[in-house]
Amino acid sequence: RRDWSRLLDDLGRALKLNAKRAWTHAWQGLALLRLGRPLEARRALSRARALDPRHAWALAWQAEASWACGDGARALSQAGQARRLDPACSDAHGLEARIYQSLGRPEAALKCLDRLLRRDPRSAWALCWKAELQLKLKRPRPAALLLDRALALHPAYADGYFWRAEAHRALGRLEDALQDIERALALRRDH
């Protein structure tokens, strides 16, 4: 939190020197968002987009701010626009998936994650998230395979071990589940 506050101060000084840089407004919006100030974030991100309408990351962060303000329809629309502007914008794919998941539409969330994984097949967090959705849909076998891939990419990913333990448990592999829980706890005590 302190780092975001420091960044916000630095960005304020940068904007006094030159207020015509879209990326400075965009990062100011992101800092405000991370500090729990989504309304201010929306304004800063709107300024960034006014300066550069093709700034996909600013639009994705604006979608996140809209979501934080309770405007789900706008957030979903903005995230989709950001993804279309820049298909490599992982924040847009992730936010779309999060919104669909919260709306109880896991299949739509899976499609968002599939699009992201086509662009970045080495995204361990996206593989884990897709596996989590597969588990919620009662599909433990594909979830376990996704988690194997994620952990091969990022062996110190505690969440991956936690979710793989869930997949093992659902498949009746209790010894494997226990080993993965122990690994997750060794990496992160809060599991």
Q: Helix count?
A: 11
Along the chain, the helix and strand elements come as HHHHHHHHHHH
Structural class: mainly alpha
Unreliable spans are: none
Count of distinct strands: 0
Beta-strand fraction estimate: under 5%
Cα end-to-end separation: 22 Å
Q: Tell me roughly what share of residues is in helical segments.
A: over 70%
Averaged pLDDT, please? Answer: 94
Q: Major β-sheet, in short?
A: none
Taking all Cα atoms into account, the compactness measure Rg is 19 Å
How does the overall form come out from the CA principal axes? elongated
How would you characterize the overall build of this protein?
The protein is mainly α and 191 residues long. Helices cover 79% and strands 0% of the residues. It is elongated, with a radius of gyration of 19 Å. The model has no long low-confidence stretch (mean pLDDT 94).
What topology emerges from the helices and strands here?
Blueprint: H1 2-17, H2 22-34, H3 38-51, H4 56-68, H5 72-85, H6 90-102, H7 106-119, H8 124-136, H9 140-153, H10 158-170, H11 174-187
Helix pairs in contact: 1-2, 2-3, 2-4, 3-4, 4-5, 4-6, 5-6, 6-7, 7-8, 8-9, 8-10, 9-10, 10-11
